[in-house]
Amino acid sequence: xxxxxxxxxxxxxxxxxSNVLAVDEPAKVRLLTDRDLAYxxxxxxxxxxRAITHAGTTQLGGxxxxxxxxxxxxxxxxxxxxxxxxxxxxxxVVSNSRTAKAGAGEAxxxxxxxxxxxxxxxxxxxxxxxxxxxxxxxxxxx
Length: 142
Description:
single chain, Jelly Rolls, 4-stranded antiparallel sheet, 14 strands
C-alpha cells in the first residue's frame, strides 16, 4: 500500500508547506483540517491557508480563510468558480451592489467572472473550494 508523501511544491506563487499531504494514488479519500497549516496574510486581518493543491488528485483548489480582525478584500474578479462554507462567524460577499451574507453552517456560491468584495468579522473561519485550481495558468477568456 502506498503512503502519503510529504512535499513542498509551489502553487501559483504560494508556497505549500511540507505539512500539506500530497496523495500518491488517484481516488484517495482525505481528511482536511487546518491544524498545522501555515497561513499567509491576504490583506491585513484576513489570512489564507491552502489545503487542496495541485499535489492532490483533483482539479479543485481550496483551503481555509480566517479573519483575525474585521477585514475586507475588495474588488476581486474571480477567474474560477468558488464556494465558501462558513464554519464560524459571519461572511459577506458583495457583488453588483448585492450582498450574500452567510453565518456558521451556510455557504456562498460565487460564479466565475463575478467582481466581489469579501467582508468578514473578527473570528470568522471558512473553507473555500475553487475550480479549476490552475485558474492563473489559463489563457484570458478560457
